[in-house]
User: Fold this.
Amino acid sequence: MTVAIAFSLVAPVGARQRPYDAIMKDVGSTFGTLRKTLETGDLTATTSDAEKLARLFTEVEQFWVPFRTKDAIDAARGARDAAVAMAGAAKAKDAQAAKTAATRLAASCTACHLSHREQLPDKTYRIKP
Amino acid sequence: MNRRLRFSVLASRFVFRFFTFVTVLVGGLPLAAQAPPTAKPPQTEELAREWFVRLNELDDWYISFDGQEQNGAVVDRFLALYADDAFHQVGPSDRQAGAVVFHGRDAIRKWANDFSKTYTGLNYRVEYKTRQEKPVQPFYVTEFPWGGTGASTQFEAIYTNRDDRRQFVVPAAVFFIFDEAGKIQSLRLYVLQNEAAEIA
Assistant:
């Protein structure tokens, strides 16, 4: 019982603390695949990628919530909402709506990167507060 | 004859050099006594300017990939300007009414840490005064009779709230008292929040 309670307290924290660069790399590769599936009209694959992106942006939002940084939280929520909309449109076989949602998602990414991503001379990235 | 002439020339040269030396020595004494005051003010101004540099660096840090706010180095650099028993006084905030005084390194570290995590886009810059097409950023420097120096200046505090990303410009002034080692003994910061203007 004690072990179960302790695990339940620790597990969510461990889940929340997946390294941010790992989440971003997942986002990058998933969004890259999604663009290709959208171009080829494979809406089944688009649905799957969009649903994965929605989960990833929930992680992104959870990363920013403790810092109370409104623009980053809003961008993550905007991206997640766009991913959910994209998944819905792809399921409904509405390729145009899915593409519009993908553009909205990309805009959320750009906004957050402009404000919170900095590239260092060695081409690695850092998170700006 | 030649020997006498040579002796007389050498003697007169010696006398001339001796009196020149004495004249320069005696005449130079008051100048030497005045030298330190003229040398100190620029140093005091540099100390005050360095405070602005390090204050503006308080937003120059990153969040690690595992979510740690890594502002320790910039806070340490800022704190190195203060004496161990320094006073740092700021205006009221929404957390405390009246003047807020931080005494000692630990207390000032807390202020710097909070400041560093609350604001971004820091650009506190000394106000320019321009006359006859000559712009300067003046510091008003004084030397205290008990040792140490003081400096003050007017500046514009430009900052962005980290949480809502709203940017402001606020007129402000700062008064420093430096000890003889050049550390801040006391600092009073006036930020006129009633005159704050939001930058759209």
Notes: The radius of gyration of chain B is 26 Å.
